[in-house]
Design a protein that fits this description.
Aspartate Aminotransferase, domain 1, 16 helices
Length: 463
């Protein structure tokens, strides 16, 4: 798409105002137009000469501003062709060359940002932002726009939800931390899936809770064991929708039978990532008192830091009152962008799911080829695979892996009491070629362990 010098001049408006040299003011203004989406990615700008004429300035000024933008990654330039709009981060081939050598990080289960989708969402957010300028911007429940959008997300999933049953948080982890603060007392007992999401374990143990682990095995959840444990629990925390780390989905028959008397937090962070099964009905449909938490971190991008709690207004009021000791609300621009993403159904993109499925299949195939001893259930959703080795080598493998160019999360981090020494969690959020490379490196680390040459690295952070 070619953009004329008249169009750029119109968008730039009074670009000459302000301090500093003219070329700097021009490059600053053009950068803003790129960031807010008015100069779209891939658009071809007018030539330096045409733009200089259109703006009534010198070609030197335009040339200097284009060079600044190109140096900072906002323009791609080539001799005798128009400069095109891009975002910083390097071209695909530059990134590829750099990556061959770098360590592959399999400790994070989180996707890279869908750049253009995010860009469009932030452009919408910036347009809407002035509506909020008259207010102070500290809103502990979240903006009306995002609360509505989240309520509609539940309604689309078959769960009627008024907007006042939603409180916006800075990610699902923040939601969990707030609920832990409000619902748990020291020495309180928390029922957890076992294995489960490690940062949930940390949140509960730091609150000095005692954990009641209920096994999630290769055949899934055991309703009777869950019911039995819930009798003595003060809180339950479940990940029924594409469980982290196994990728399993709790069957409707189990959901229907659960009757817990204790408050139950249902983590639906992965709910939009159904790969092989229809999207599950929200657990709260069968357990109306359930407190649901969610996020756009896995379905769009973790860097947004937008999550939420769905609960009765009486509980949300307690959460809202507990909030000021650690935070006074969620950034407004990110909330508006998240609302745009939810309203446009960008948290469930068929193309993204197709890609995730292909990456999962590539990972499983590479495991079969290079680590045939590993047993792994096919995850039906989410973004992680739970691999089982015949021997308890997980922690030693995680320590050795960085010497071979890959980092992984060891199984014991997903459980308590040293369980899961035979397991590792492998995310499939990287491109298939990187996953194949990672598995080859892991196989080399495995071989090094077998030969008695292990590593000494400390565990990587994970998500
Ligand atoms: C099950 C589960 N809950 C919560 C979180 C935290 O999500 P957020 O990035 O929204 O804080 C994660 C992230 O890995 C997760 O896997």
């Amino acid at each position: 798409m070619k953009i004329s010098s008249h169009a750029v001049a119109r968008m730039l408006g009074t670009w000459r105002e302000g301090p500093g040299p003219a070329h700097q003011r021009l490059s600053d203004k053009l950068r803003l137009l790129i960031l807010d989406g008015r100069l779209p990615l891939g658009a071809a700008l007018p030539s330096e000469r045409d733009l200089a004429t259109g703006l009534g300035t010198s070609r030197t000024t335009v040339g200097a501003s284009f060079r600044t933008l190109a140096e900072h990654g906002y323009l791609a330039t080539r001799a005798r062709t128009r400069a095109t709009v891009r975002l910083p981060g390097g071209t695909g081939s530059e990134r590829q060359a750099g990556r061959e050598a770098e360590t592959i990080d399999l400790s994070f289960a989180a996707p890279a940002a869908p750049v253009e989708i995010l860009h469009a969402a932030f452009a919408t957010a910036l347009e809407q932002l002035p509506r909020h300028f008259e207010r102070h911007g500290y809103d502990r429940y979240g903006t009306a726009e995002l609360r509505e959008a989240i309520a509609h997300w539940y309604q689309r999933r078959g769960l009627p939800t008024p907007a006042d049953h939603i409180l916006v948080t800075n990610g699902a982890q923040h939601a969990l931390a707030l609920l832990t603060r409000v619902l748990l007392s020291p020495r309180g007992r928390v029922l957890i899936d076992h294995p489960t999401y490690p940062h949930a374990i940390t949140a509960f143990t730091q609150a000095r809770a005692r954990l009641l682990p209920v096994a999630v095995t290769s055949s899934g959840w055991d309703t009777d064991q869950l019911q039995e444990a819930a009798k003595t629990a003060d809180l339950a925390y479940l990940i029924p929708d594409f469980h982290n780390p196994t990728g399993m989905c709790m069957p409707t028959s189990v959901r229907r039978r659960l009757r817990f008397a204790c408050p139950t937090v249902v983590d639906e962070t992965m709910a939009d990532l159904a790969l092989d099964v229809p999207s599950p009905e929200p657990l709260a449909l069968h357990m109306p008192a359930a407190i649901s938490i969610g996020s756009v971190s896995k379905s769009v991008w973790g860097g947004l830091r937008i999550g939420w709690i769905r609960a009765l207004p009486s509980l949300l009021e307690r959460v809202e009152q507990a909030r000021p000791t650690t935070d006074l609300g969620t950034p407004v621009v990110e909330q508006l962008a998240a609302a745009a993403l939810l309203n446009e159904h960008q948290t469930r993109r068929p193309e993204a799911l197709r890609q995730l499925r292909a990456q999962r299949d590539a990972l499983q195939h590479a495991l079969g080829e290079h680590l045939p001893e590993v047993d792994a259930l096919q995850p039906v959703g989410g973004m992680t695979l739970w691999a089982t080795f015949p021997a308890p080598i997980s922690s030693r493998l995680a320590a050795a892996a960085p010497d071979h160019g890959v980092t992984i999360a060891a199984g014991p981090r997903f459980g308590i009491g040293g369980a899961f020494e035979r397991n590792i969690r492998l995310p499939y959020t990287l491109p298939a070629s990187r996953l194949r490379q990672a598995v080859r490196r892991l196989a080399r680390a495995r071989q090094a362990l077998a030969q008695g040459t292990g590593g000494t690295h400390t565990p990587a952070p994970l998500a």
